[in-house]
């Protein structure tokens, strides 16, 4: 009984954490918290071991592997569904971390709690000019002393200008390890367009950046052959961070070379109505591979980048028109 109660409370907390933080439009100050910690992919915080089958996640009974119960995919850090676990660094036990949505001119007070055991942290608010508050920019050893394990720091700055931004840990490989989330600063005037957030990233399910860096620096080999540097669509040779899959809002499908087929990871679903216009806020949260974004049989019009409006550029899946 006691255990059930504890699990219920835990699940309720976890569900609460992954909801977006949206500041009231009339508030002058918005205050919230982000907790950074380690976790692993493909593990449920209370149900433990999970596996993927036919687009659903199941928890399995370790004493009887043919007994399995479906579980809620939103409670697991899935990545590309690769069953072998990967160590991640995340905000509020989710990847991406919670969406932070505020209005232009509001003061944002964000306490960052470092629950990592041995690494320090800073949080960078990508794209924000931080005019008048350079010491809140989150650059370790340059604009602040990093937040030591077991301690916290309160970021305090005015959210401006309006636009699509993201936050992430700026220490070592923590960002590529999963510590990122969207920061949206809405305009004061109400905008009738419904919004959706798309966070796109390249994903490697068995590399961590620090290991990848060491392998590159000291000679990476696979099966006694030198590991090739990945090449992108335009022929450029990229750095050493390999890519297994592409993720949207932390979820994507892995194509196995054994079966030459994709697995069935549950994907992010955007519900839209025919004939309506939407604003998609697209954030590239990856490590090194760029992505071309299009929606089949639809025209995308690019209206702004970071906090700046641009003359609209129209895109289809065949490129610019
Ligand atoms: C993150 O988690 C903390 C601790 O559970 C919670 O207090 C806070 O509201 C969460 N932050 C957001 C932005 O959801
Ligand atoms: C294992 O689980 C299956 C499916 O739920 C069940 O039919 C079987 O009886 C279980 N075996 C044992 C030894 O409990
Ligand atoms: C899974 O969790 C999400 C997010 O909290 C919730 O909206 C949804 O109803 C849950 N689904 C099930 C089947 O419990
Ligand atoms: C939006 O409102 C805030 C606070 O009232 C103000 O500082 C800011 O300049 C306004 N932005 C625009 C574009 O009018």
UniProtKB/TrEMBL annotation:
Origin organism lineage: Eukaryota, Metazoa, Spiralia, Lophotrochozoa, Mollusca
Keyword Oxidoreductase in annotation: yes
Similarity annotation: Belongs to the multicopper oxidase family.
Signal sequence, start to end: 1-20
Domain Plastocyanin-like: 85-189, 195-313
Record's GO cellular component terms: plasma membrane
Keywords from the UniProt entry: Copper, Metal-binding, Oxidoreductase, Signal
GO molecular function, one term: oxidoreductase activity
Gene3D superfamilies, A to Z: Cupredoxins - blue copper proteins
Protein name, entry field: Uncharacterized protein
């Amino acid at each position: 009984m006691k255990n059930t109660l504890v699990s219920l409370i835990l699940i309720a907390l976890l569900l609460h954490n992954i909801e977006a933080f949206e500041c009231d439009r009339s508030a002058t100050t918005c205050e919230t918290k982000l907790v950074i910690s380690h976790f692993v992919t493909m593990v449920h915080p209370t149900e433990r071991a999970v596996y993927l089958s036919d687009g659903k996640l199941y928890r399995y009974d370790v004493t009887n592997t043919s007994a399995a119960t479906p579980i809620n995919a939103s409670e697991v850090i899935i990545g590309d569904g690769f069953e072998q676990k990967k160590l991640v660094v995340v905000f509020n036990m989710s990847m991406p971390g919670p969406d932070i949505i505020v209005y232009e001119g509001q003061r944002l007070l964000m306490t960052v709690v470092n629950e990592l055991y041995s690494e320090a942290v800073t949080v960078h608010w990508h794209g924000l000019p931080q005019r008048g508050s350079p010491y809140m920019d989150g650059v370790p050893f340059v604009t602040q002393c990093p937040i030591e394990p077991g301690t916290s720091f309160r970021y305090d700055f005015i959210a401006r200008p309006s636009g699509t931004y993201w936050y992430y840990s700026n220490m070592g490989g923590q960002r590529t390890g999963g510590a990122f989330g969207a920061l949206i600063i809405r305009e004061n005037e109400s905008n009738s367009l419904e919004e959706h957030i798309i966070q796109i990233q390249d994903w490697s399910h068995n590399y961590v950046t620090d290991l990848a860096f060491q392998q590159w620096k000291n000679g990476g080999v696979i099966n006694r052959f030198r590991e090739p540097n990945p090449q992108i669509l335009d022929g450029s040779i990229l750095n050493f961070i390999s890519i297994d899959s592409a993720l949207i809002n932390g979820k994507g499908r892995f194509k196995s070379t054994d079966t030459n087929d994709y697995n069935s990871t549950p994907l992010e679903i955007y519900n839209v109505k025919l004939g309506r216009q939407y604003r998609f806020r697209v954030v590239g949260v990856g490590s090194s591979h760029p992505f071309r974004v299009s929606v089949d049989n639809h025209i995308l019009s690019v209206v702004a980048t970071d906090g700046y409006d641009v003359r609209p550029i129209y895109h289809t899946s065949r490129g610019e028109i």
